[in-house]
Amino acid sequence: xxxxxxxxxxxxxxxxxxxxxxxxxxxxxxxxxxxxxxxxxxxxxxxxxxxxxxxxxxxxxxxxxxxxxxxxxxxxxxxxxxxxxxxxxxxxxxxxxxxxxxxxxxxx
Length: 108
Description:
- By secondary structure, the protein is an alpha+beta fold.
- The protein is built from three helices and four strands.
- Strand 2 and strand 3 (48-54) form a beta hairpin.
């Protein structure tokens, strides 16, 4: 992904949000494909959280749709869900919610 100023800002805000929720541990990225943009772990509970940033132009890209689907369906070895957070500009939030419903990631 290209690191535009908008994506960098969204990533910083998403990382700050994850830190506030207690996901402050940085987990080393694995060689798995695709790799999550942000991977954090809760040092207290040991739970994983993934994060992705989505810009306006990403909302129509098929590879973005595939990444959102892939990370929304990830599970741990014990079959529990891995939390998945998406950083998006406020102006694109409604369009993202519609996309998530179309992809079957989120119910209306």
